[in-house]
Amino acid sequence: MNPQPELPHAHEPPDPVPALLGRVYAEAPPPLKSRLLEQLLKPLGLLSLAAVCNGTFANLALGSDLARMHIRPELAQTVDSEQVMALAAYVQQVSVQAVTGLSQVLSASPLLQGSVAASALVALLIKRARELPKPSQRDLEDFAA
Q: Where are the alpha helices (DSSP H) in 1-145?
């Protein structure tokens, strides 16, 4: 009998961002929930949205203004924190910038100033944003070409 090969990430602790975002989302008022979802949904197409949480976010996007990605607060209320956690985990694989951009949304909200989860999430997102590699001039030129 051959032992199972050890997975390279088997001993890494789980990423705290989705769990913290789930807690923040649960505490947030409906208008802030809308802004958080808008930020997370920006980099995703309709097909990607259909893949997350059994299409919950595709339905949400279809019920919203897709051109401006404006999520109405009453639609944001239909999404629970578990679904937001799954969305955040998925979006991190697609666009780290979309997730780190949540720090701006959270920092601009006076409603979450006293939230420990929001403060911890903002601090973590800012730390991660500082660790991201800066694009070189050549990367920018390649992108413009």
A: 16-27, 30-41, 46-51, 56-62, 73-76, 81-94, 96-100, 102-107, 116-131, 137-144
Backbone φ, ψ for residue 70 (5° rounding): -105, 120
Name the burial class of residue 115, with classes exposed (0-12), middle (13-18) and buried (19+) by CB atoms within 10 angstroms of its CB.
middle
- Residues comprising the chain, all counted: 145
User: With a threshold of 0.85, does the pTM exceed it?
Assistant: no
pLDDT digits (tens, 9 = 90+) for 41-85: 888 877 777 777 777 777 676 666 555 668 888 988 999 999 999
C-alpha 96: how far from chain center: 8
Distance CA 18, CA 130 (A): 19
- For residue 116, give the nearest of 34, 46, 16 by alpha carbon: 16
User: How does DSSP assign 33-66, residue by residue?
Assistant: HHHHHHHHHTT--HHHHHHSGGGHHHHHHHTSBT
Task: Classify the phi-psi angles of 119: left when phi > 0, otherwise alpha if psi is within -120 to 50, otherwise beta.
Answer: alpha
